[in-house]
Amino acid sequence: xxxxxxxxxxxxxxxxxxxxxxxxxxxxxxxxxxxxxxxxxxxxxxxxxxxxxxxxxxxxxxxxxxxxxxxxxxxxxxxxxxxxxxxxxxxxxxxxxxxxxxxxxxxxxxxxxxxxxxxxxxxxxxxxxxxxxxxxxxxxxxxxxxxxxxx
Length: 151
What we know:
Elements lengths: L1 E4 L2 E4 L2 E3 L11 E5 H13 L4 E5 L17 E6 L6 H11 L6 E6 L6 H6 L4 E2 L6 H8 L13
Parallel strand pairs: 3-4, 4-5, 5-6, 6-7, 7-8
Antiparallel strand pairs: 1-2, 1-8
């Protein structure tokens, strides 16, 4: 499956592993925040990178000391109307200085891609591959910006 990363189409090399599934020995994986906190040592010893999937209700402060070990942070939108993840992305970039990939996943709209990129999201995964071209076009919807951003 393709994703948009830094305004380019790339193949997705990451797999989300649910809490009730054993960790694979290799490969790039993401896990929930709860699993990261519980199994961090095991995750860091594996072959392959580890990432964290955040939900809107997750607190990002427990990750502050671990950001250099996290290859990707996925922001999981359960519904497109929940804006808390926009704030999480902004804080990760501006307050915490996270330089890695921040990826939007879940139920968000291609029209939100421009705004998500303004707060620090640099990668986008869509369940419906038809949204990819629409999202790429949406990144250029506005030529004038009034507010400062992370990009």
